[in-house]
Amino acid sequence: MLAGLLAPGAAALPGDEPIALVSPADGATVAPSGDGSRFLFTCPVYRSADFGDGFATFGARTDYSARLATSAELGVDGRLRQDRLVDLGGVQSDDTVPPDQCLTVMGDEQRAGLDPGTYYWQVARICTQCAGSYETSEVRRLVVRAEVRASLRPPGALFGGYPAAFAVRVEGAPDGSVVALQRQT
Q1: Does residue 4 sit in helix, strand or coil?
Q2: Could you report the per-residue pLDDT of 14-59, keeping only the tens digit for each?
Q3: What sign for the dihedral angle of Cα 31, 37, 38, 40?
């Protein structure tokens, strides 16, 4: 099983540029965002099949897809396992990305952002003559961590046995976070 976790992605057909992950870097830490996290990768023109004698079929940008999972374990097709997926992303149009790169956003408004934790991402493209019918990139680790700042403002005076209203402010926590105020005993 360890060999499956460390196995590199399926290689491109000879002469084609492989998929290169651009950002975020391996092990990068990002803040949770309801808008999702941006993932950049190269998406060169490539052959999905080559039958020789000049007859080849070429893949398009729409043949690229990204996966975000809770485990780096790969399935039999060389992609991150389906049962560990958190999100899937296709190539999105964006005029801020260089022409040789593609962008996908995962963990966006449909999931209300990624929960803090460790995730793994990978990009694949359809390749009918590759093992598993996909050519895959390396797998990278991504850490989602919230930088939370909490403050507490007690009421002006506290009296034993009487209820008191405390003002609690939490900045940087993802929407939907639970805050609990506990009395020190």
Answers
A1: helix
A2: 778 899 999 999 999 988 777 788 999 999 888 888 888 888 888 8
A3: positive
List of E strands, the chain: 21-23, 28-30, 37-42, 46-50, 56-59, 64-69, 85-90, 101-106, 117-126, 134-136, 140-144, 149-153, 167-171
Q: What angle is formed at CA 52 by the lines to CA 49 and CA 53, rounded to 5 degrees?
A: 135
Beta pairing, strands 64-69 & 140-144: unpaired
* Token pair of 4 as six digits: 């499956």
Q: What is the pLDDT of residues 141-158, one digit of tens each?
A: 999 887 778 888 888 888
- What pTM was estimated for this model as a whole? 0.76
Question: Residue 55 — left, alpha, or beta (φ > 0 → left; ψ -120 to 50 → alpha)?
Answer: beta
